[in-house]
Amino acid sequence: MRKLSLLILFICLKFAWIYGQTGPSFESYFFDKTMRLDCMHTGINDKEYYSYDAIYQEPCWAGSKLNLVDTLNLGKYLFKVVDRQTKMLLYSRGFCSIFGEWQTTDEAKKSVWRSFSESVRFPWPQFPVTVTIAARDSMNIFRNIWTFDIDPLEANIRKTEFYPELKVNKILDNGDPHNKVDLLILPDGYTAKEMKKFHKDAQRMLKTFFETSPFKEHKKDFNVWTAEAPSNESGIDNPQAGIYVDNVLSCSFNAFGSDRYMLSWDNQTIRKIASKAPYDHLFLLANSNKYGGGGIFNLYATCISDNKWSSYIFVHEFGHSFGGLADEYYTSDVAYDEFYPAGVEPWEPNITALLDTSPIKWQDLIEPGTPVPTPWSKNEFDEKQTAYRKLLNKMREKDVPKAQTDSLTAANDQWVHLFLRNLEYWDQVGVYQGGGYASSGIYRPFIDCRMFSRSLTGFCPVCTRAIERVIDFYTK
After folding, report:
1. Residue 1, pLDDT above cutoff 50
2. What is the pTM of this model?
3. Which residues, 6 or more positions from 182, have their beta carbon under 8 angstroms from its beta carbon?
4. Residue that finishes a domain, picked among 89, 123, 150
5. Can you tell me the mean pLDDT for 260-264?
6. Which of 296, 323, 350 finishes a domain?
7. What CATH number is attached to the domain comprising 309?
8. Domain count of the chain?
9. What angle do CA 144, 153, 51 make, to 5 degrees?
10. Radius of gyration of the chain, Cα coordinates, nearest whole angstrom
11. Burial, 265: exposed, middle or buried (Cβ in 10 Å; 0-12, 13-18, 19+)?
12. pLDDT tier for residue 20 given thresholds of 50, 70 and 90
């Protein structure tokens, strides 16, 4: 029987090569439902280990049935699903994790061991498989760090239906989930009485989202779902203000000590609620007016609902979680220390270390005659931003009314918007020093972009192309 399957696989792969499919025939190796492997990711800054937690069956598979093997080469980690008997690679995906970010913090470097729950999801295998997780080494080469065998007939695989009364809504329907990007928006800090507010907030975010290129041009490639998961209390945790609430997804500000960085450590609750709908990507929408958000590639994005900049944050953070885009700014305070080590080319598609050994990722978009590196009045920009942040911090120390700090920030945002647009190479792709939280040593492709400033500009040509590449991977 397996020999016959291999013959069929060979024929399918021949046609897949012709039509652009990556990986084997879905029907030959998978069933149309999802397997979720939960594990614990443990370690310190220079050591990491995985351990098995549980396996769950989720009702349906929302991903592509054609592009099963990853071709994007994004993420700090890569998981692979291999047929145990034939050693055939059946499925793979790149991803990032909370643990991977935490490893770059001072806490991890002080040898404080921590563990984080993680999940990898893939189509339900018909035969026993081996799952391997690899991490990039110091030279960005994937090295295997954990291997685990799974028999899909194992009796201890959990088939529980969680939250049976939870209501799921499909608020944008463009067709079969197998050839669409299925985005699931989950509420956090919304009580049962606030579900109408959640839906209004989600629709408001989506309005801006689908007005922003390239999502505007690809709206037909998306399905959008919501799940009505109420919290017992309204709002989310704000540790620096001493505020703690009973919110269902446990989103909290002050992740890794950064006040505006909002994450949740409660992976299992998120996954159990999310299992109610077909999804490729998750967005956690938090009921708060405090500025904040976060985005981790192929994990989730977070955003607050009622801040002036909520819609900007929604799109920006989705750039991280969906497109694998790096932050291009470098003047804001972050919790990371040497997030991009010197001498190593970052894997993200929109920043570069400009090493002699690595070609410029976006070389084809640079017009002939554009100097590399590309000048952009960086010193003047840096001086202005340093002065702005010193004044802002003094105002906060004096506990001045929020309206005054908001006014100062708005004035600075406007200055940034006008200043950058008056530079010589404003509208040209180049190699501009400053990006990835580093003032030097890291370069970005455009003077301004949705990943650089808060001036409501769009994505630059390089980021746009990177996002469209991911959309195509899910839909074509």
Report:
1. no
2. 0.93
3. 62, 222, 223, 224, 225, 277, 278, 279, 280, 281
4. 150
5. 97
6. 323
7. 3.40.390.10
8. 3
9. 35
10. 23
11. middle
12. low
